[in-house]
């Protein structure tokens, strides 16, 4: 699960975020931890009790078939865009810094990367993913630690000096309580972190598929606790690396690149930290990218087959044949979206991913909240319209409020989006009935 979350985007973007927003990302990470606890104690027991292969089957049981397929569609849209954005950054780094002398086109690297993922996932499914993700996660964490070590060696100030460098840096600020207009305000970041985890882990087929492969609910909860706890120091190390790189740039009188995502690649690929770091950096981002992309591709294949094509009702041979076709089709679509993201390049890819999640996961949040916390029935045939209208209305509100007041929504857009979906379902629901909520 760490490998599925710590993508190549995290590996590159989080250290670079320090220059633009200091270490305030930790406020979101603290929110993540509480989000994992909510998933462990509310959603995991539900999924295990219903014995679900696809978690969106709950929406079909609780609301109706249209809600079921709408939830699956929004997962597919969210995961496809998110995975494309994450894999794009890795392909871009490989294209710009590793294969630049070979003059290999970007699209060739994108297709090649997806093809490698497809090769080792099209046969064994989740069993292959668990073991390869474990190895890849070990590689990316080891690469991070070694890069930090070589950076410290280059600074040559000793352990106490490193602590002082981080503590007294102008970018060491973690908490923001005084500026309500800022996107880095603690309450916005903290509560956004909670809801980001609920939707991007608890309502995500990719992440839940791993937990549902545990032997029982107790093991799944233990897995979630360990994962939630380990995520805090890991992100803190990424942010500390960012501060150390900025300090090293000042010491060496280097001009940092305009894009934050280019800071770590610049140090790793231009020889400032030595040839060993280039090798470690390449291993780290490839391991991170593949551990995220392979599980995403497998989860999307499961969702299409189970939720949209109903292959669980087919014979084993027919289901296997359909799954292979879907797996290949999604791989081709993923390569296309990577090239599309390259055309729409954003200054911070991780920020773009969370904004995308705010729009695409919001309807899922609203639908699951309606199912879990009410005992009402809504008009199932209108659920797709509500799910589409909510993010559109969010976009319009964000534009209007920014124009009138100068306030710009951040990740809290996710909570607004989910609330609008929930409100829409409530408005169309009938009188309270005695409904057995699964």
From TrEMBL:
A GO CC annotation given for this chain: plasma membrane
GO BP: sodium ion transport
Membrane topology summary: Multi-pass membrane protein
An annotated Gene Ontology molecular function: symporter activity
Membrane-traversing stretches: 30-50, 71-98, 104-121, 133-152, 186-203, 224-252, 272-290, 326-346, 352-373, 382-401, 413-430
InterPro entries found in the cross-reference section: Na/Glc_symporter_sf (IPR038377), Na/solute_symporter (IPR001734), Sodium:Solute_Symporter_SSF (IPR051163)
Keywords: Cell membrane, Ion transport, Membrane, Sodium, Sodium transport, Transmembrane, Transmembrane helix, Transport
Compartmental location: Cell membrane
UniProt keyword Transport present: yes
Family label: Belongs to the sodium:solute symporter (SSF) (TC 2.A.21) family.
Protein name per the record: Na+/solute symporter
Organism whose genome encodes this protein: Bacteroides thetaiotaomicron (strain ATCC 29148 / DSM 2079 / JCM 5827 / CCUG 10774 / NCTC 10582 / VPI-5482 / E50)
């Amino acid at each position: 699960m760490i490998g599925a979350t710590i993508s190549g985007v995290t590996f590159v973007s989080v250290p670079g975020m320090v220059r633009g927003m200091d270490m305030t990302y930790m406020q979101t990470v603290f929110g993540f931890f509480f989000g994992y606890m909510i998933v462990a104690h509310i959603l995991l027991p539900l999924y295990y009790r219903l014995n679900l292969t696809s978690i969106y089957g709950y929406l079909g049981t609780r609301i109706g078939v249209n809600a079921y397929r709408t939830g699956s569609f929004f997962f597919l849209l969210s995961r496809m865009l998110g995975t494309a954005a994450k894999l794009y950054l890795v392909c871009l780094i490989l294209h710009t810094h590793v294969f630049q002398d070979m003059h290999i086109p970007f699209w060739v690297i994108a297709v090649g990367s997806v093809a490698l993922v497809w090769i080792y996932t099209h046969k064994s499914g989740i069993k292959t993913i668990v073991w390869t993700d474990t190895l890849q996660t070990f590689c990316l964490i080891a690469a991070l630690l070694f890069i930090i070590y070589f950076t410290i060696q280059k600074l040559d100030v000793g352990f106490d000096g490193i602590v002082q460098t981080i503590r007294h840096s102008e970018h060491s600020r973690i908490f923001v309580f005084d500026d309500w207009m800022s996107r880095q305000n603690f309450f916005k970041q903290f509560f956004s972190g909670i809801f980001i985890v609920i939707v991007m882990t608890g309502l995500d087929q990719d992440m839940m598929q791993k937990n549902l492969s545990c032997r029982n609910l107790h093991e799944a909860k233990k897995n979630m606790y360990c994962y939630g706890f380990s995520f805090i120091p890991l992100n803190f190390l990424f942010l500390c690396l960012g501060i150390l790189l900025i300090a090293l740039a000042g010491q060496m009188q280097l001009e940092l690149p305009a894009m934050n995502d280019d800071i770590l690649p610049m140090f790793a690929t231009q020889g400032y930290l030595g040839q060993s770091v280039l090798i470690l950096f390449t291993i780290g981002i490839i391991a991170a990218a593949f551990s995220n992309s392979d599980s995403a591709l497998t989860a999307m294949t499961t969702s299409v087959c189970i939720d949209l094509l109903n292959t669980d009702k087919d014979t084993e041979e027919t289901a296997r044949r359909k799954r292979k076709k879907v797996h290949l089709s999604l791989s081709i679509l993923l390569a296309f979206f990577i090239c599309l993201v390259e055309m729409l390049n954003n200054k911070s890819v991780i920020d773009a991913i969370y904004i995308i999640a705010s729009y695409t996961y919001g309807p899922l949040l609203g639908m699951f909240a309606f199912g879990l916390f009410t005992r009402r029935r809504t008009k199932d045939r209108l659920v797709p319209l509500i799910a589409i209208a909510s993010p559109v209305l969010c976009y319009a509100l964000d534009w209007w409020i920014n124009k009138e007041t100068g306030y710009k929504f951040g990740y809290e857009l996710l909570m607004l989006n989910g609330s609008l979906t929930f409100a829409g379902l409530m408005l169309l629901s009938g009188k309270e009935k005695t409904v057995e909520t699964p």
